[in-house]
Amino acid sequence: MTISRRDFVLGASALVAGAGFAPAAIARSKPLTDILSWDRLTDHTQAVVNLALGGNSLAIASGDEVLVVDSKFTYLGPALREDAMKLGQSVSLLNTHHHGDHTGGNNAFVGKGSSYAHPNAISRIKTMAELFMGDAQGAVMRAKRDLDGNERAMELAMQVAENAQTQKVDDFVPTSPVDHGDTIRIGELELDIHHFGSGHTDNDIVVQLKSENIIHTGDLVFAGLHPFYLPAGGATAKGWIESLEQVLKLCDDETVVVPGHGAVGGKEVVENMKSYHEQLVDVVQGEINKGTSKEDAQQMSWPFMDGLQFEQIKGRAIGAVYDELKG
Ligand SMILES: [Zn+2]
């Protein structure tokens, strides 16, 4: 029996994601600080995969340079930066989209190195001062709850909370717009930037490191989870399905796929997400045809949803697709 590189990766991260909260007992190939648990995915990449800690962050390092993809919540930004600094002295940041569980920690990075996002994400992040303020003010409570009162995490969270009153939204806004077809160089590595139009938001970026056959999809993929729908941010089922069709073209049978949330997988996690949306459109259209109200449809469930986590956002997805199909 041969175990491919991808099977090895998937075996390790499936354990972690299945557990939800990453238990300390699972051995890590490369521990950085004792706050965040990193899974080594390829020679130059490692990820923090933990449902409780916001979007999955990926660190891509080469030479003295490191790019952090997504910054989780504000109280985790300093820990992410501390870890990144151990991989390389020149640290840059990329946001896959504007949502606060991927951009909350931006202020630990912006102004201290390059920072990248889609132009629409940059515009939207400029309007999120209040969200970042609340996130910073709640830092100590979050660190206590989500990181079990880890001493260093509490210290960093206290600093975040103390600085909440003086933080400015500009501290969170990436300064370098990137769009489809752009590339970013990190040491000797070249990253390809993809944007396939509106899907999960109107500013989704997929990052691809071709030399190691790995992609970070942002929230175009929720693995083993219901997807988060916020139409005000540009989410549509139609656009989401079209974007995922394009993401699949980046994948072969060995591709390592880092989703926005949930376990790292292969191209099947992209296929599963696409299938979820296609089936959701079908069943919701069926209910509309039968005259079912939106409220009643939101209470329903179908076999393709069995076993998925994030149950609390299922009704939101159904309602958003209901509205979209009704036009
Ligand atoms: Zn999102």
Detailed description of the structure:
The chain is of the alpha/beta class and 327 residues long. It has a single domain, classed as Metallo-beta-lactamase, Chain A (4-Layer Sandwich), CATH 3.60.15.10. Helix content is 37%, strand content 15%. It has eleven helices and twelve strands. The strands form two sheets. A seven-stranded mixed sheet has the order 1-2-3-4-5-6-7. A five-stranded mixed sheet has the order 8-9-10-11-12. Strand 10 (206-209) and strand 11 (214-216) form a beta hairpin. It is globular. Mean pLDDT is 91; it is low at 1-31. The structure holds zinc ion. Zinc ion binds next to loops.
Tell me about the largest β-sheet: 7 strands, mixed
Number of strands: 12
Give the amount of beta strand, in percent.
5-15%
Described by the principal axes of the CA atoms, the overall outline is globular
Tell me the layout of helices and strands.
Elements: H1 5-19, E1 39-42, E2 45-48, E3 57-62, E4 65-69, H2 77-87, E5 90-94, H3 100-103, E6 115-117, H4 119-125, H5 129-137, H6 139-146, H7 151-162, E7 176-177, E8 183-186, E9 189-194, E10 206-209, E11 214-216, H8 237-249, E12 256-258, H9 267-290, H10 294-298, H11 314-326
Parallel strand pairs: 4-5, 5-6, 6-7, 11-12
Antiparallel strand pairs: 1-2, 2-3, 3-4, 8-9, 9-10, 10-11
